[in-house]
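Appendix B, Record 12. Input sequence as logged:
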Amino acid sequence: MFNINSYAKINLSLEILGKFSDGYHQIKSIMQTINICDSIEFLPSNEIKINIYGHDIPLENNLVYKAIVDLKKIYSIKQGIDIRINKNIPIASGFGGGSSNAANTILALNKIWGLNLTIEEMVGIAMKIGSDVPYFLYQGTALVEGMGEIVTPLDDVILPEILIITPNKKIIDNKTKKMFNYLTNKNHSTGYITDNIIEKINTKSIVSNIDIYNVFHDISFESYSFMKVLFSNLNRIGITDINICGAGPSVFTLIDNKEILNIITENKYFKKFKIFLVKSHKSSSVIEYDN
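Logged structural output:
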């Protein structure tokens, strides 16, 4: 038996610099793992088995399955694997849970199957699965560029606690693809916002809400019908600096006063959301194993 924790992420920045000739967007982003995680158990098997407790996700949409199939095909692996996932990361909510699971599956199978792959080789496989997957091979605080395949680990960011608000149910299908389709040249930036955050990280300064930027912030009001009302209710209780998680629909804010958590949980409107108070997860190694 082999167990691993698969952490969620938030974007401290997400800028679009332009488009490549193949139509894919050129990003510049700082990603940060947070201490919400799924637990993944790996057991020996002659076939591929994936059980995501409490969820029915078709194999063709399962990034873990794609990771296994790609590894078996590329490296002529005959054996299978039995994977059991306990989900704590909300699905399709902007935290990269599926990408995290896929990346950690690559890392785990590299060890279980004795593939001895370099990080560069794993990035090549990860990029075929999804643009967020390469980042999760590194975790922690990292600069992510290109189409997601260029990952540069950074010093650990200094953040206050993170209050996260996420809908109780899935909002839209093919969310990330649809959100990217909303982008136009007007949404392009130069990367200076990300550079400013990197400067704060390098000087050991605290990153605050005013430093954070996500290109999908304004677009989210058009894409998610509840977003304007959510922001309005947050404003009423004194939360005015609100950030989007990935491509949404979850939002987060950095807080110093934990009392705001009690105010939210006692407010009737927020009963339709899941509320988390989390911290940044400072990964000390590429992967954490629990044998």
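The longest helix spans residues 97-112.
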